[in-house]
């Protein structure tokens, strides 16, 4: 009569399956392409989109100002403002208070 032996093959199979399940679960949550990293990447994408939109607004303002100072279209008020700001010019009838 044979004595009952533990089935080593079954222990090995379930042990290997358990280790692989734990490894893949950990990799899915904290790995390079895991859930935590995905949340960080999505937050960074949202931040960069806001920055891109702000830069687009700034670019359109600069393009407008450049167009207003071009040879084809000269805005005298803007030219006067820039001359006062950059060169420190004032009109003879103005009083400067510092």
What does the model show?
The chain is mostly helical and 98 residues long. It has three helices and no strands. The longest helix is centred in the middle third of the chain and has 34 residues, at 35-68. The radius of gyration is 35 Å and the shape is rod-shaped. The protein starts with 7 loop residues before the first helix and ends in an 11-residue tail after the last helix. 0% of the residues are buried. The mean pLDDT is 87.
Please tag this protein with its features.
70% helix, rod-shaped
Show the helix and strand layout.
Elements: H1 8-30, H2 35-68, H3 76-87
Please tell me how large the radius of gyration is: 35 Å
How many strands in all?
0
Coarse shape = rod-shaped
* Helix-residue proportion: over 70%
Largest sheet: none
The run of helices and strands is: HHH
Oligomer: single chain
Number of H/I helices: 3
Distance, first to last CA = 112 Å
> What structural category characterises the helix and strand content?
mainly alpha
Q: Provide the low-confidence segments as ranges.
A: none
Mean pLDDT: 87
Hey, roughly how much beta strand do the residues contain?
Answer: under 5%
């Amino acid at each position: 009569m044979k004595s009952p032996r533990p089935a080593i093959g079954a222990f090995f199979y379930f042990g290997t399956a358990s280790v692989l399940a734990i490894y893949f679960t950990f990799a899915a949550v904290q790995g390079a392409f895991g859930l935590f990293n995905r949340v960080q990447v999505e937050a960074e994408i949202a931040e960069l989109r806001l920055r891109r939109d702000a830069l687009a607004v700034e670019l359109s303002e600069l393009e407008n100002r450049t167009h207003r100072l071009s040879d084809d279209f000269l805005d005298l008020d803007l030219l006067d403002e820039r001359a006062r700001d950059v060169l420190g010019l004032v009109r003879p009838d103005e009083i400067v208070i510092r």
